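[Automated response] Your request has been received and processed.

Submitted sequence:
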Amino acid sequence: MTKYYRDVDGNYIGGFDGVEPPEGSIEVDEPPQNAVAKWVGNKWVEPADNIRKKRQRDFIADLSPEGSFDETVIDILDALINNAYGDSTTLDALKIKIDVVNARHRT
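Generated structure:
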């Protein structure tokens, strides 16, 4: 069974299975999501970039909870492309398309 370790400064060392970790290593329950995370108190603190990416993933999940985010993006891009060459109702058509996409994914 793999065991995970950090050093005294909170840096992730790695997971070890069947071999001893470096001397002075401190065992933790789980590895961080990103190897550059720091152990602070009793948990891993992810770098700011990972937090931003998690917020983006949460937003994506909210946008299309039951559908494919790819489908949602394709639908929106399709509307943008089609309406970019359309008439003066471009903005209204785009709003309608986005409402349809959102309704499909939120029902």
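Summary generated for your ticket: The chain has two domains: 3-46, 64-106. The chain has three helices and five strands.
If you did not submit this request, please reply to this message.
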